[in-house]
Design goal:
Helix 3 packs across helix 4, helix 8 crosses helix 12 and helix 10 crosses helix 14. The chain is α/β, with parallel strands linked by helices. It is built from 18 helices and 16 strands. The protein has a 10-stranded mixed β-sheet, with helices on both faces. Bound molecules: adenosine-5'-diphosphate-glucose. The site of adenosine-5'-diphosphate-glucose (ADQ) has 25 residues, from helix 13.
């Protein structure tokens, strides 16, 4: 069996890549290296080039887009129609029939190119909303291989999605997949509802029948490489990475609240800045004692809504700083740079509060990274939006409604005042969840469901590597084990842990730097 991964963006690894690659890209590349395989997608460039590069037993096959394709397929239908509507933002959804035609055209072109590269025993794993109709196009060309799809962002209910012209036609193409993976149970329910309501499909448990095809739908909450992140955080403190040293010098003993996001309206950055301002207004005694560091590198700047958000976040931060700041204290710092994983892990570890308040998010990896980076002996507190998929697993965070500025402001206060014993208790439970449902667990579980081969037995995939552990963390591991945590690589225990994680919560839930599959 060979694995074929298809994603909107493909980054061919070079010698610098290790420093910036995120967990997802690395996890997919590891899976490809294990089976031998092919990674196919857009090069990220505009032009007419198509090329294949061999790295070990993995072939990277990339193609450029024309400027018209980039406008219609990528910026137009994917990012101005599908992205907002999937994030429940009907008001921001801009539908153009020509964009939709461009979207279908690129999927058709990808299918034509890919069909020629596929071998009979390949298993194909397609990623994200840019490529929803790709399997249907492959089937039209006679491809009968097993094809899976993973949707990284939320899937809204049928009455929201139904407002998008051609949504029924688009949703119908999903029947070409054998397995559809979503981030949460809510997304699975919405998807099944959409297939039934918009396309007249028949539901049988987690399977949906449409015409001659049967598709399995399942939630696979994505994780991070917890162990790697924990090690990076510890190392960044030991080595005092430059931006951290500077932050330490400029903050002194002041507390730090941190937000890290791509500059995207789904992440609730402007609302978060307002909530921090509200916190300082309601609790004047806190002024001068704490700052918010918001790291938000711009993304998709060619889309007008993103340029507007950039302007608004500057404006709100400027207004609050002018209103509340002192000559020796700046309440809010907005930084628009991408940082290395090490620096980012160090910032998380330095911050007493991780403020993760998206208005809607498929999962949100920052929430998991923040927990992974904490010092087990003196951890910070995660404040998490109930509308992030991560909230379904991470019920021990302070769960908030990001639309309620006062509620978020009070959660910041509660987090800053939380006694150490409670911080440690919450941290241990959160760490247990993210550790037992890490990126390796996610990848194995998905591929097991897609291939039908029980990878956890080691029949196809060797057991995962376990990293060297340092002293400080054995405490956490011991705490986890005492609570019945899984041994890494034991998928059976992990499955139980994620089920528990889901129950724990009171609420359901590009071209970017470290999630480069989009
Ligand atoms: P994204 O919308 O990109 O992903 P998220 O899950 O938060 O959102 O991942 C962002 C990643 O970018 C994190 O790994 C973070 O560390 C990194 N990042 C952010 N700012 C950075 C900076 N300044 N420097 C360096 N790295 C930075 C989509 C969905 C999510 C889903 C993921 C994975 O929108 O809901 O969790 O896919 O499936």
């Amino acid at each position: 069996m060979r694995l074929v991964v298809v994603s909107n963006r493909v980054t061919i690894p070079d010698r610098y890549e290790k420093a910036t690659a995120g967990g997802l890209a690395v996890a997919l590349r590891e899976a490809l290296e294990k089976y031998g395989g092919l990674w196919f997608g857009w090069s990220g460039a505009v032009g007419e080039d198509t090329r294949q590069v061999q790295r070990g037993n993995v072939t990277y096959a990339v193609t450029d887009l024309t400027e018209a394709e980039r406008q219609s397929y990528y910026l137009g239908f994917s990012n101005r129609a599908l992205w907002p509507i999937m994030h429940y933002r009907l008001g921001l959804t801009e539908f153009q029939r020509s964009d939709y035609m461009g979207y279908l055209g690129v999927n058709r072109r990808f299918a034509r190119a890919l069909a020629g590269l596929i071998q009979p025993d390949d298993v194909i794993w397609i990623h994200d909303y840019h490529l929803i109709p790709l399997a249907a196009e492959l089937r039209r060309r006679g491809v009968t291989n097993r094809i899976g799809y993973f949707h990284h962002i939320p899937w809204p209910s049928a009455d929201v999605l139904g407002a998008l012209p051609f949504s029924a036609t688009l949703v119908r193409t999903l029947a070409a997949y054998d397995l559809i993976g979503m981030q949460t149970e809510l997304d699975v329910r919405n998807l099944i509802g959409g297939l039934v309501d918009l396309c007249g499909a028949r539901q049988e448990g987690r399977r949906v029948r449409l015409g001659a095809r049967e598709t399995l739908m399942q939630a696979f909450p994505i994780g991070i490489d917890v162990e790697a992140f924990r090690r990076l955080a510890a190392a960044s403190v030991r080595r005092a990475v430059t931006p951290l040293r500077a932050t330490r010098e400029s903050l002194g003993e002041r507390k730090l609240v941190i937000g890290v996001d791509r500059l995207d309206y789904s992440k609730g950055i402007v609302q978060r800045l307002e909530a921090f301002g509200q916190f300082l207004l309601s609790h004047p005694e806190q002024r001068g004692n704490v700052s918010l560091l918001q790291i938000a590198p711009p993304s998709r700047s060619d889309v007008p809504e993103y340029a507007e958000l950039d302007r608004m976040s500057d404006e709100v931060a400027g207004r609050l700083n002018a209103q509340l700041g002192e000559f020796d204290w700046t309440p809010i710092r907005v930084v628009k740079k991408a940082y290395s994983r090490t620096a980012l892990a160090g910032f998380y570890r330095r911050a007493q509060v991780g403020l993760v308040t998206p208005m809607r998010d498929g999962m949100n990896l920052v929430a998991k990274e923040y927990v992974a980076a904490q010092d087990p002996a003196d951890p910070g507190v995660l404040v998490l939006s109930r509308f992030a998929g991560a909230a379904q697993q991470m019920g021990e965070a302070l769960i908030v409604n990001p639309y309620d500025t006062h509620e978020v402001a009070e959660a910041i206060r509660t987090a800053l005042a939380m006694p150490k014993s409670e911080r440690i208790r919450r941290f241990e439970q959160l760490y247990h969840v993210i550790e037992t449902t890490d990126i390796d667990w996610w990848r194995r579980r998905y591929l097991e469901a897609l291939t039908g081969v029980p990878l956890s037995t080691g029949a196809v995939e060797p057991p995962r590597k376990t990293g060297t552990r340092t002293k400080g963390d054995s405490a956490t591991r011991r705490a986890s084990r005492a609570k019945g945590a899984a041994v890494p690589g034991r998928t059976d225990t992990k499955s139980r842990a994620v089920a528990a994680g889901h129950k724990a919560s009171p609420h359901p839930g590009d071209a970017g730097h470290s999630t480069p599959v989009r």
